[in-house]
Amino acid sequence: MLGRVSVEESRLAHRDNTLTPDFDVTLEQWSGVMENFDTGSGRARLETSGRVNGQARLRAQGDLAVSPLYLDLTGQLDGYGMETLTPFTTRYLGFGVERGRLDVDTEVSIEDGQLDSTTKIAADSRAEAERQWAESLKALRTDKVELLQVHNLRDWKTQLPYARELKEQGKTKYVGVTHYLDRGLDEMERILRSEPLDFIQIHYSINAPAAAETVLPLARDKGVAVLINRAFDDGKLFGRVKDKPLPGWAPEVGVESWAQMFLKFAISHPAVTSVIPATSKPKHQRDNLQAGYGPLLSEAQTRELIAMDL
After folding, report:
1. Model pTM score
2. Which of 163, 173, 192, 300 has its CA 20 to 30 A from that of 224?
3. What is the pLDDT of residue 100?
């Protein structure tokens, strides 16, 4: 076992000469640490960060193991200058993207031989927001919407004022901002304190309850409605409660499944307006809806679920 491996303020350089022209990228101010790496059955913790081409911030963190193969990794790239990609967008896409900022959020997991990956990419600008708005109205066959949210706090200092303009024009009734990871909570709090909002959307679950520390109470105090995403942690919670019985008090709150318990946990916080679980199966939808019936959880029951340390 390797107890701890670290790197501080280093530099990596990479060239891909299979592309035309050659693609060069550097990772500067590279620092990171890996703890408890074991070629046996143990899991190591990895955290690393740096700046791509000396500017865009890159961060990655998660757990990994060799035997059995396991990976649970999240990564973020913030503020990658699109101008460095102009030669490649011109050659391979047929048009040159000359300016803008590229942000990427990615989640990768490998467990029980199954690979899951989610990536969100956004190039931010006022022009891009206007284009997306026009395309959304066309796709929805409408000229207005009820709620318009700035996705994952992307370029919110530009996009939130634009959303407010649309609200003033009567094209949306409510405006808000969203995020889905703990790393967004501090920024969400700052926005709540400084900006008038109608809605926020944030993650809150048994294994990720940090939003309840500051963001949810602050939203309640300011009268901001709250939508909860990722109440199932992208489905990971179901694997962690497999073969586990529900708490003995589950019938007292009308809960008959773990899905209902996870949703009941979220809606029981007094700041929460609604939870938005994603499903494509009607039977799951019917099961989810049952979480809206019966008493809400007490503070003691909420603490007991968090203490399960899923």
Report:
1. 0.66
2. 300
3. 65
